[in-house]
Automatic annotation (TrEMBL):
This is LysE family translocator. GO terms for molecular function: amino acid transmembrane transporter activity. The keyword Protein transport does not apply. It comes from Cupriavidus necator (strain ATCC 17699 / DSM 428 / KCTC 22496 / NCIMB 10442 / H16 / Stanier 337) (Ralstonia eutropha). Keywords: Cell membrane, Membrane, Transmembrane, Transmembrane helix. Pfam families: LysE (PF01810). Its main location: membrane. GO terms for biological process: cysteine export across plasma membrane.
Length: 204
């Protein structure tokens, strides 16, 4: 392989890693919920949630890369269904968060688990934008299967510490938000941000 070809290949990998980092670490439904979970439940109890986010999203990228993303072009009505389901579910999550008072609150007595967090990726508007954008923009290998594995693998490696940072930040804020009124105000603020994350699909 020529030096120029190697440099070009390395540049594509670096560009994709940068895309994965920026899209993973910036605010969105996953990070908002992980921050709130870190505050309400602490980091250790939030670990299944963040693992579900990272592994579930990597799986989503793999399936989109294998052709699932083209479903929206072949069947436009599926995007409308996704918009409705995502909107209803995120509104419900925001309501639960806004009306929660902490770990003692009966409405939020346990953090989101691994499987629920993994399944949430399929109604997460930001996750769809990230997955479709990555698979339609970056080609890391000429072989379809290897390309998909690379996309999903790099996203998984970059995404995990990125989302973990939000849970850690939430855990660090626990003692500052110990008072019920302050915690309630924080949860309401997180609920508003969660609703704001609907903009990518409502504005589409």
């Amino acid at each position: 392989m020529e030096v120029s070809q190697l440099a070009a290949g390395t540049g594509v990998f670096a560009a994709f890693a940068g895309f994965a980092l920026v899209s993973s670490i910036t605010p969105g439904p996953n990070n908002t919920m992980l921050l709130a979970s870190g505050v309400n439940f602490g980091f250790v109890r939030t670990v299944p949630h963040l693992l579900g986010v990272s592994i579930g999203f990597a799986l989503m990228v793999g399936l989109v890369g294998l052709g699932l993303g083209s479903m929206f072009h072949a069947f436009p009505w599926t995007w409308q269904v996704l918009r409705v389901v995502a909107t209803v579910y995120l509104i419900w999550l925001a309501w639960k968060l806004a009306t929660a008072g902490g770990v003692q609150d009966q409405q939020v007595k346990r953090p989101m688990g691994f499987w629920a967090a993994a399944a949430f990726q399929w109604v997460n508007p930001k996750a769809w934008v990230m997955a479709v954008g990555a698979c339609s923009t970056y080609v890391l290998h000429g072989n379809l299967w290897l390309n998909v594995l690379l996309l999903a693998g790099i996203f998984g490696v970059v995404n995990l510490p990125s989302v973990a940072m939000w849970a850690l930040c939430g855990s660090a804020l626990r003692r500052w938000l110990a008072r019920p009124r302050v915690l309630r105000a924080f949860n309401i603020g997180m609920a508003v941000l969660l609703l704001a994350s609907l903009w990518p699909i409502l504005g589409a």
